[in-house]
């Protein structure tokens, strides 16, 4: 089992930088940074690769990183203790002057748990957004609570034969051994999505995904495909998902037998960007239960009085909460996916979370990337999530990790710029998905690279 540690390598970068097409800085600089533990497993990989040739090239810069949490990372960056920072949440106060946010990578926040005695044992527990909120608010106290049992009882839902968004409507109708798929756009829809590509994909009952149409938007598009029992058809225009349609009634979820094990909620101590993103999800999707807005501090965001009877346990960092869950039957937490995957052999699983299409989806790189395809990125490089996205394959609890760098032209900031460029252009595309993250693409990547250009620009 891999455990997180503070990364403090001192190896040079010439080969890695040359591979990325980046000019090395003119003098050696040790670039120390720290912050987000969400991103730390990927930073380990990228820093090791960036630094690996120091012995042969002693005059190039090196990188070190301390996984201390987003809150401490922001504070230390503002104080000048770190030459760069990493955070999953934005400054609410205390931001330094003349700095930029650089989106570095996205990824899912898994709802990780250990629960012995579930049958069938190989099926993840399924949870609606409201159920997640009630568990972490402490109003659901045992694993066989009626709400969790209901989420884990298979249900048959009627076919969804149409879905619409922003002036575009998608429909499906069965005719003999064919399914007729249709997209109709109003004038407003054609204006909004002018020049965009319509993509229709089919997901069969055994989870095989194929493209069935890819063409420019028009007022009316039709496509006939062979009927496949239980298939879902997902319509996307550009990066906007219209949702999924079906022609068959659908069985959602799997019936599980759940033990009466008490729930132990494990949360991040101190300040954490992962906490901020997780509590944002709870507030935005279940505001009646989770009445307080997002915060880096779980205890500040907690909507009720935090229990002191041992049913809530604080732990330090992503490693801390994941280790606690592994060691305690009935425990549940929230953390970046790779920390849960590292402990799968110890009984830790990721819950399948219901999305707006009614499907239960486990966290993955692809499901997180789909969520961020519809996010909005502003001129400051910050990303606003769209919790209304409706797709059968999207995962709903996600975070963006930002790098923090200064605009002032110095040798140190030139090194930070070089490292951020390498991270986005070379390391993340090759390594992020395999480590449980979603590499940036599309509009977010374009903006991220524009933000990198501002570092060390004077």
What characteristics describe this protein?
458 residues, alpha+beta, D-Maltodextrin-Binding Protein, domain 2, Immunoglobulin-like, nine-stranded mixed sheet, four-stranded antiparallel sheet, 24 strands, 27% helix, disordered N terminus
- Anisotropy-based shape: globular
Q: Tell me what portion of residues adopts beta-strand conformation.
A: 25-35%
In the CATH scheme, the class of the largest domain would be Alpha Beta
Arithmetic mean pLDDT: 91
Rg estimate, integer Å: 23 Å
Largest sheet: 9 strands, mixed
Report low-confidence residues grouped into runs of 5 or more: 1-26
Q: Helices and strands: which structural class?
A: alpha+beta
Task: Write down the CATH topology of the largest domain.
Answer: D-Maltodextrin-Binding Protein, domain 2
Helix content: 25-40%
- CATH architecture of the largest domain, by name, is 3-Layer(aba) Sandwich
Strand count: 24
User: In the residues, how many domains can be counted?
Assistant: 3
Distance between the termini: 44 Å
CATH superfamily placement of the largest domain: Periplasmic binding protein-like II
Our count of helices gives: 13
